[in-house]
Amino acid sequence: MNVRKMVTVIEEIRAEGGRAVSPPATVAVVAAVIENPWAGQGFVEDLAPGIEANASDLGALLAPAVLEALGAPAEAYGKAAIVGLDGEIEHGSALIHTLRFGDHFRKAAQAGTLLPAVEKRGPAGVVFDIPLKHITDATIRSHHQSVEVRIADAPHPDEIVIGLAAAAQGRPQQRLADLSTER
Amino acid sequence: MQETPADPSAERIGLRKLVTYRDVVVTEAGMAPARPAQRASVAAVIRNPWSGAAPLADLSAGQERIGPVLAKLLCDRLAKVLGGVDRIEAFGKAAVVGTAGEIEHAGALIHTPFFGNLVRELLDGESIICFADARGEAGDSLTVPLWHKTHAATRSHYQTVSARVPDAPRADEIVVIAAASTGPRPHSRIGDRRTDPVVTSRTLEESPS
């Protein structure tokens, strides 16, 4: 796994809708900009060797880093794979849609649900939104949220940005009725 | 990164959110830098204190009230995210004013001693702090220049870091940014004033290249 750079983003929301958010609502993202393991190889039918060589290492790199950046227990989480223009979206999906990747985060956050994800292809500086859901029950509506990220010079055409997001709480000023009230 | 829930200083300056960005170059051009530097920016989104004020309104009271609070908020986060003030070698500052404000409002918050002197003091610097400012829309990306905090002419430390808040500034807001780096550019190798040859239009005529 060839990493070019690591990026950390921490958002602290102190007021929303004109009212204070107390304690501040915190969301953190950590992303690794890596060389696309399948760059320059044409159409690769079997992605499994590349997945085995990279996915677990990426999960082990990012999971503790995003929890450290958050500085609090995670209540919601999500993941991202943003593929440079010369790659396939399948390449990004390959690295994040495997238990080898996500289990690191689930274990570190004592979580149980599947990680919601964004997968897209774009140029360096592309804006992407990472969806987050509750770490133990993906139906908990208060925790449905997303965080927007942009890395000025990534991904290059032969790179992939792999990211994890964690939130210490649900949405600021969340006040929607629970899903169960509509059943 | 959390702190006291009801922070009165934050409410006093109309703070809506803080966004911290940090990156570290692990490899550049395929090689690890000799000294991998961490670069960071911290952006505070506040209500423009002069929103709706009369043209040519006096800005001094707002500068004095808001600048020191911002300097402390931003520098505390820079130090934390970069591993301490001692590790910081370069710094810079910036502001983006929303479309209902004046560039002068952005300048009022970053170009006076109430912000600049305190940033310099809190980050243990001596140099004038280089800057960028702009009026823009929410989500505009700003490139913030940095240079060495005690020796501004140190060319290896000329670098930039990007700062962006997806939903700010609103028209009546200002984003104020402080930025810093723990080292030089990766693979910096363009000499320095001490090693530069004398270059004038005349010397270039004498030795065409």
UniProtKB/TrEMBL annotation, chain A:
Stored InterPro entries: AA_synth_put, BB2672
Pfam families in UniProt: AA_synth
Name under which the protein is recorded: Amino acid synthesis family protein
Organism: Streptomyces oryzae
UniProtKB/TrEMBL annotation, chain B:
Pfam family, one: AA_synth
Domain of life where this protein originates: Bacteria
Leader peptide range in chain numbering: none
SUPFAM superfamilies: BB2672-like (SSF160519)
Region Disordered: start-end pairs: 182-209
InterPro entries recorded: AA_synth_put, BB2672
Name of the protein this chain belongs to: Amino acid synthesis family protein
Originating organism: Streptomyces oryzae
